[in-house]
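INFO  loader      accepted 1 record
INFO  loader      residues=298
INFO  predictor   begin
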Amino acid sequence: MTYRGRFAPSPTGPLHFGSLVSALASWLDARAHEGTWLVRIEDIDGPRTVPGAAEDILATLERFGMHADETPVWQSGRMPRYAQVLEQLKSTGSIYPCGCTRKEIADSLLHVHARNTTLAYPGTCRHGLNGKPARAWRLRVPDGDAAAITFEDRWQGEQTQNLATEVGDFVLRRADDQWAYQLAVVVDDADEGITHIVRGVDLMDSTARQIYLQHCLGVPTPQYLHVPVVTNEHGEKLSKQNGATALDTENPLEALGAAARHLGLDLAASDHATLDSFYKAATAAWAKRMDTRMNIGN
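INFO  predictor   done
INFO  writer      dumping tokens
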């Protein structure tokens, strides 16, 4: 298998330390496998996209010495492809229109919670809209044993999620006409031939949904690796929403060293002399930590 990995930031602000950890992990995994490392700008969520943020992220990655092996892909330029896949799913009966509002779903889940059962989308529109206008499109998940999706995460170990009881039928096209993350990421990974996905553990909850959608579309399932996220002093995931500051592009080695330590990589002080020496040592340390059985060079 020819390794193809990717880093896929959302341009909702400048690159911060939490994002750097994910970028570094994906970059090192690709290099340890002597593979290809891609960058994808996930800018399909129009209301959250900050003008100029994508360009700033790409410039920061360059400044930190992480150069994409192919021209970056922008999701905003792939809208027709997502529409094509949605039509494909319609033709197979895998999806259905949903007329539920957020309040209706919340009220329904509150009622379900009162009965001490699951908090998943209850399938209100599975068998028809009941006179309501269509707002979103949902993918029908299986019932029974087939709803349990199990995968082996290279960092977190074996994971299982029951889509029927823990998630329910999930959205592929949102009520505000935005493409859902689940659809876009699965289509993009398949079209780019991604074989390995390395990202933060905060996204692991999406993995079972993405694997099921891959099955529906008949595309390969990549190998997954979810690294620990960076948290702030309150134990919250470090993010732009809770005040994460932009990286200092004038001193990339300091931030890279901290990111390597967060990933459990033991590097000597001499390894931080230059970007080249850092990446050489960090790639070897990553390969050793992950037991990557590949020739990584000398």
